[in-house]
Amino acid sequence: MSATTPPPALPSSQNTSNKLLNSIPILSQSFNRKKDYSIRCEFENNNSQRWTVGCVSGTDPIHIILKPPSFPMASATALSSSTVKNAKRVCLFYCNEMKDLAERIASQSDAIELRSITWRTFEDGFPNLFISNAHGIRGQHVAFLASFSSPGVIFEQLSVIYALPKLFVSSFTLVLPFFPTGTSERMEDEGDVATAFTLARILSNTPVPRGGPTSLVIFDIHALQERFYFGDNILPCFESGIPLLLNRLQQLPDSDNISLAFPDDGAWKRFHKQLQHFPMIVCAKVREGDQRIVRIKEGDPAGRHVVIVDDLVQSGGTLTECQKVLARHGAQKISAYVTHGIFPNRSWQRFNHDKGGSPENGMTYFWITDSCPRTVKEVKDKKPFEVLSLAAPIAAALQI
After folding, report:
1. Pairing of strands 90-94, 112-114
2. Degrees, nearest 5: CA angle 148-398-80
3. Which tens digit of pLDDT belongs to each residue from 180-230?
4. How far apart are CA 97 and CA 147, in angstroms?
5. Which residues are paired to 262 by β-bridges?
6. CA-based torsion, 27, 29, 30, 32: positive or negative
7. Cis peptide bond prior to 61, omega within 30° of 0
8. Contact 297, 284 (CB under 8 A)
9. For 4, 145, 348, 361, which has the most beta carbons within 10 A of its beta carbon?
10. What single string gives the DSSP state of each residue in 213-260?
11. Which is it for strands 258-262 and 280-288: parallel, antiparallel or unpaired?
């Protein structure tokens, strides 16, 4: 039996253009009802695609089912452009210190557009600031990438943070990768000032934009309870740099011989759920006479590449003591990861590179993120330091 049947129109849900459908040639062929046939169609865009034609048996005339070709994910230029088209477009402002990170964030997505601020000062040293094209961000999703690296730069950035939501923006996101007062979150003696709570209250007074409360993105805040310090005008979004570490560990040649060490119970409680498939070692500070020394509380580092994990490092004293005790107990290599490498007074200089397999004297790797831009500039190209960029997770957070 023969049939001359034009291919039926595809359902509109498949989003195929009329131009494409009209370019499919008329089918004229004798079919065996029990077979599927393939035809090759040349479309007007010069792309050659294979279409499958199925015949439904037991019917006269023959019903032809036209099955569109599958598009593999690997060749998804059109899909990626569609994703960008549907993505939330964000105008990203940034402070001077964060320029490099802001550019890396913008390179992650065409939906993120960098916008500039003129950072000037009057003769008396107080800020003289200007937001370029302020009318152009009306109705837009706006974000600001901040760095409170020292008290001296906080006021000028707070001025911008308070100004942007009042420019009739659709939404406002504040990205503060490192929350600097996080270690001062409680009072132990009468008269102690919990500056973490103070900074949280200041940020909580950010004006509410048209779309609702400001989103605040922070990575690995020191004390998880600090999320409750913020008022209702702020929606804190706590992210972690640990996925960056996991990705890097998988790239190591000895990835199957890695154990993770935590300098104290606090670090273990914070991170162990994200790192459960690794053998773990927990250290603790104990008092011996007038001294407090680091001991291994749980786990065995013998013969392993041990990576010490914590949220931040300042002077590095605790990490150094952990390194020594792990080396004494037979660790083959020792590395470290911290999300925030603060290193005041260039204290990063106390960490040497392990060049000859002597883990008591040096580290194989010391990973930090680019949450503290001043440190990044100081340790660039200096072993054992490697910088894992937060650009991709920040770009993803801006799409929430």
Report:
1. parallel
2. 140
3. 987 887 777 888 888 999 999 999 999 999 999 999 999 999 887 888 899
4. 7
5. 282
6. negative
7. yes
8. yes
9. 145
10. SEEEEEES-S-GGGGGGS-TTEEEEEE-SHHHHHHHHHTSTTGGGEEE
11. parallel
399 three-state secondary structure: coil
Q: Which two tokens stand for residue 387?
A: 């910088």
Identify the sign of the CA torsion 29, 33, 35, 38: positive
Let me know: does 325 contact 297? Beta carbons within 8 Å: no
Q: Which residues contact 7 (CB under 8 A, 6 or more apart)?
A: 21, 24, 27, 51, 53, 64, 66
Instruction: Tell me the pTM.
Output: 0.78
- Lowest mean pLDDT: which of 62-66, 207-211, 240-244? 62-66
Alpha-helical segments (H) within the chain: 18-22, 77-86, 99-106, 151-163, 195-204, 242-250, 265-271, 317-328, 373-379, 391-397
What is the band of 30 on the pLDDT scale with cuts at 50, 70, 90?
very low
Site of tokens 């949220």: 311
331: which 2 tokens?
A: 């660790």
Cα–Cα distance, 229 to 182 (Å, whole number): 11
Cβ partners under 8 Å of residue 347, min gap 6: 314, 315, 316
What does the alpha-carbon distance between residue 374 and residue 348 come to, in Å, rounded to a whole number?
Answer: 12
Count Cβ atoms within 10 A of the Cβ of residue 164 and give its class: 0-12 exposed, 13-18 middle, 19 or more buried: buried
The greatest distance separating any two alpha carbons of the chain, rounded to the nearest whole angstrom, comes to 100
Backbone angles phi, psi at 99, to 5 degrees: -60, -45
Give the residue among 274, 373, 267 at the shortest CA–CA distance from 322.
267
Phi/psi zone of residue 15: left (φ > 0), alpha (ψ -120 to 50 degrees), beta?
left
At 285-343, the pLDDT tens digits run: 887 777 778 999 999 999 999 999 999 999 999 999 999 999 999 999 999 999 999 99
For the chain, percent helix, then strand, then coil, each to nearest 5?
30, 30, 40
